[in-house]
Amino acid sequence: MPFLRASRFVCPVPFYATRRRLATAAQSTQSFIPVIDFTKFREAAGQSDRKHVADEIVSAFKKSGFIYLAGHGIPSNTIQNAFVKSADFFRMATGTKDKLAWEDPRSNRGYVKVGRERVTQSADPTEIAALRAKAPDFKESMEIGRDWDSEWKNQWPQESDAPQFKRTMLDFYQTCHDLHVYVMRSVALGLDLEEGFFDSKINEQCHNLRLLSYPSIKTTLLQNEGQARAGAHSDYGTLTLLFQDSVGGLEVQNPHTGVFIPATPIPGTIVVNVGDLLARWSNDVLRSTLHRVVAPPAKQVTDTEATTPARQSIAFFCNPNFSAEVACLPNCGKEAKYPPVNTGDYIVGRLAVTYT
């Protein structure tokens, strides 16, 4: 596994003009979503030093399910390039993108146009269909999986349509997986397991790299009941690594009060949160917390109309191996709240009711 060097994140959207505003807003968030310096874990001389950072991470995952990860070691130009190539992809003609359309939850690969997905906590297909018709998610995405899969293939644009897109995303996928391994080792230590406990359970890289584009939109279209850029939901897997631009809009529900709190972008950090399968694995010792994407402050364009700015993000949804059984960890309670579940069956089942 390549060693990740410490770096600072360079935002793909001009940031410094809004730095002071974001810093002020971030101060009110950090008591709920702490900033944790992962450099101390990656560069620690011994396990005792790593254990201190691991305990910080697990403590936060028990309280809110979210952290800002600083000192993650992914070079800023790597993140910057991924955002640039993502923007290039979404600027392609609609007809070109539609040829790459998402087709099957077992694959979970391809282009998802605006309104096709409706994220929610419901598992009822009829209810989700009604929600989608009433208040679809105003976003488009490109879903990318491991490229060597023998059964399910990624849907790549032609090199002439999106130069260096495939190479950039394959490299970024591997970089995110490597970080995922490190963070899961910290979770293992924080739960008093062997540091490498999860290594053999995540090594097949059954993850999902999701490129997200939230187009600029008239605010009137976001004022319907239940409407949001992405509705309140939890994630499905072990962890999510979220790379934000400076626009903002992510909100995290305080599980103790029910209030949604802005996860204001903080330069140099990645937002990391617990997914449903890790919560299930830990018998709910670690929290998989509801979150959503709402419209940031709008720009007035006429006396009666305003528009919200476009937003980009990149989410890396980390999963156990699809063959892995997720059952209550031995030191996370005397009685398991959930029966064992196969990872692949669980994730495909969740995806199947989310899309049209």
Question: What's a quick, concise take on this entry?
Answer:
This protein is α+β, with helices and mostly antiparallel strands.
Architecture overview:
- The chain is of the alpha+beta class and 356 residues long.
- The protein has one domain: B-lactam Antibiotic, Isopenicillin N Synthase, Chain (Jelly Rolls).
- Helices cover 30% and strands 19% of the residues.
- It has helices spanning 19-29, 39-42, 47-63, 76-90, 94-98, 125-134, 165-190, 199-202, 276-281, 343-352, and strands at 35-37, 66-70, 110-112, 140-144, 208-214, 217-218, 230-233, 239-244, 250-253, 260-262, 269-274, 291-293, 299-300, 306-308, 311-317, 325-326, 341-342.
- The strands form four sheets. It has an eight-stranded mixed sheet with strand order 1-2-11-8-15-5-4-3. It has a four-stranded antiparallel sheet with strand order 7-12-9-10.
- Helix 3 crosses helix 7 (165-190) and helix 4 crosses helix 7.
- The radius of gyration is 20 Å and the shape is globular.
